[in-house]
Amino acid sequence: MLGDITTQDVDVVVNAANSSLLGGGGVDGAIHAAAGPRLLAECRELRRTSHPDGLPAGDAVATGAGDLPCRWVVHTVGPNRHRGQTDPALLASCFARSLAVARGLGARSVAFPAVSAGVYGWDASEVATVAVRTVRAECAAHLGIDLVRFVLFGDRLLAAFEAALAQPHPAG
């Protein structure tokens, strides 16, 4: 859907974070701004304790949601094509790890942005294909998540995800 991920009434909103976990631009900046200071405080605590060197690309970690309408934020760091991170498996890991973290929290609904399709330089169609394929496979293999919503901020991204969702998924 076309929309604002910060307004989604779901259990988990996925943040396309940078490795510092301390906010940034795009989706990351919007989520931090809407969530308020509690989110940044939790991210600072993660950096102080479990992630002193930041979160690596392809991984995911959860915090509370601060002032957002969701219960949790799952932060994932997408691969940066401009830095030579071009492996689609690393991008797929963002979606798979985010869902695994969400399941671990007991979440039943998740909203994703188009991870890495912004300033990290990935083509919208490639992100959409990887995201849809990974989410379908993860949801087929694991029970728990009832709703996955891709919340996109522009017509180009929406068209790419609509095209990927229209593709048949393999039997299995």
TrEMBL record:
InterPro entries: Macro_dom, Macro_dom-like. Residues 1-169 form the Macro domain. Pfam families: Macro. CDD domains: Macro_OAADPr_deacetylase. This is O-acetyl-ADP-ribose deacetylase. It comes from Fodinibacter luteus.
